[in-house]
Design a protein that fits this description.
single chain; globular
């Protein structure tokens, strides 16, 4: 159940992020609406809570599970890139967006493989 909720919040979070990027290019005035500003924070809060619940449920609270630490570090990079994407314009915005999407792909692969260095 928690895993299903976590996956649903991941999907909502990605849709929210990509949607806000699209809105920033097409209808930036919509981004000023209160619900558009608050909803992503609520979704991401529940995403993090469900992730923490999964860590406890799976018994992965040990340092021997370095893949979780890798996911958290890349999540911080994703958040930083996401902030940059939503506040910038031009080529730098799209490079940061590509980097943010690459972070999501990495996090997903690590979640499935439980291996932070899957590429070696």
């Amino acid at each position: 159940m928690i895993k299903t909720l976590h996956l649903a919040f991941i999907l909502l979070s990605v849709i929210s992020f990509v949607g806000r990027v699209i809105l920033s290019e097409t209808y930036p005035a919509i981004l000023k609406q209160k619900i558009v500003n608050i909803a992503p924070h609520v979704i991401n809060t529940f995403l993090i809570i469900s992730g923490i619940a999964l860590i406890f449920q799976g018994g992965w609270l040990s340092i021997s599970y370095g893949w979780i630490i890798a996911k958290l570090l890349v999540l911080l990079i994703y958040i930083g890139l996401g902030i940059y994407v939503l506040k910038s314009q031009g080529t730098a915005k799209w490079l940061a967006f590509t980097g943010a999407m690459a972070c999501l792909v990495y996090i997903g692969i690590v979640a499935v493989t439980k291996n932070a260095f899957f590429f070696f």
